[in-house]
TrEMBL record:
Residues 73-145 form the Transcription elongation factor GreA/GreB C-terminal domain. This is Transcription elongation factor GreA/GreB C-terminal domain-containing protein. Pfam families: GreA_GreB. One of its GO terms (biological process) is regulation of DNA-templated transcription elongation. It comes from Maribacter flavus. Coiled coil: none annotated. One of its GO terms (molecular function) is DNA binding. InterPro entries: GreA/GreB_C_sf, Tscrpt_elong_fac_GreA/B_C. SUPFAM superfamilies: FKBP-like.
Length: 177
């Protein structure tokens, strides 16, 4: 049976909305506060490439959507998510994104502020990043995101969280002037 033209158009619009639904970074407020804390307390970085990655993460966090943790879509990379990435050549890796103090590369537990972790946190399934050293950069696509039962849970007063968001908006305004 042949589809009517408006049905085909409607399906294309729905597909585009699905692809674009998380077009920028998204953080649950608990993840946002935890990553911000580690960015601000990690001042002894000697590797300049990693330092640049963290500066990019900090900049991206200025523009990210911050929502209640409970409403973050299941396909958005958060701390304690299990992620599978794949390169165009077919290489794939599955790992869990964890806070820095739980990092263990042998057990595929990658820190949220490592070079790879900082590039993918807040992105969603289907996004592609560039990762690696100059001259050896590879495109990695987030193929699958699974939320684990373990979650970041911070008990902070609403006023403190509002202050953190307020400072973020001031910093973003300063960057655009």
């Amino acid at each position: 049976m042949k589809q009517r033209p408006f049905v085909r158009i409607a399906r294309r619009i729905i597909q585009k909305r699905e692809i674009m639904k998380h077009s920028n970074l998204m953080f649950g407020k608990d993840n946002f506060v935890m990553v911000k804390y580690y960015l601000e307390t990690n001042e002894t970085i000697e590797d300049y490439r990693h330092h640049d990655t963290l500066k990019l993460l900090d900049y991206n966090m200025l523009r990210a959507s911050v929502v209640e943790t409970e409403v973050v879509p299941a396909d958005v990379v958060q701390i304690y998510s299990t992620i599978r990435v794949r390169s165009k050549s077919g290489w794939a890796k599955t790992f869990e994104l964890v806070p820095p103090y739980e990092e263990n590369n042998k057990n595929n537990r990658i820190s949220a502020i490592s070079s790879l972790g900082a590039k993918i946190i807040g992105l969603s399934q289907g996004h592609t990043i560039q990762h690696g050293l100059p001259g050896d950069i590879v495109s990695l696509t987030i193929e699958k995101v699974v939320q684990n039962k373990k979650r970041v849970k911070l008990d902070i007063p609403k006023e403190t969280f509002e202050e953190i968001l307020s400072n973020r908006k001031k910093n973003l305004l300063a960057l655009t002037i």
